[in-house]
Structure to design on (118 residues):
């Protein structure tokens, strides 16, 4: 299942990044475009991490559910809220961004037990 999630997240990261690079340059401020780029970069990096987890799970038979769920929540919360902030300017979305970032960080910490073999 995580291979499918990684594929969906990776492809959407590419499409969203391209949209920002080609469709938003004349429509949003340089600061907002930089925010979009940051969101797309984190989105793609964590899609790649999801793929690595999926391959690890397939090779070892071990569960990667916790870090994979946290990365997925992080992509949606962090990157998704930034995409919406850039597109809509809705400030109420701002508090969602750090929650998504915390989920991403927690996903990385959740890799520690996988490295330890527990």
């Amino acid at each position: 299942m995580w291979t499918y999630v990684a594929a969906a997240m990776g492809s959407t990261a590419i499409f969203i990044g391209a949209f920002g690079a080609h469709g938003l340059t004349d429509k949003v401020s340089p600061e907002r475009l930089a925010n979009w780029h940051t969101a797309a970069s984190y989105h793609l990096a964590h899609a790649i991490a999801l793929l690595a987890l999926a391959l690890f799970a397939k090779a070892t038979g071990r569960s990667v559910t916790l870090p994979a769920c946290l990365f997925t929540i992080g992509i949606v919360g962090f990157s998704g809220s930034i995409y919406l902030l850039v597109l809509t300017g809705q400030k109420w979305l701002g508090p969602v961004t750090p929650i998504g970032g915390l989920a991403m960080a927690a996903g990385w910490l959740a890799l520690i037990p996988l490295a330890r073999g527990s």
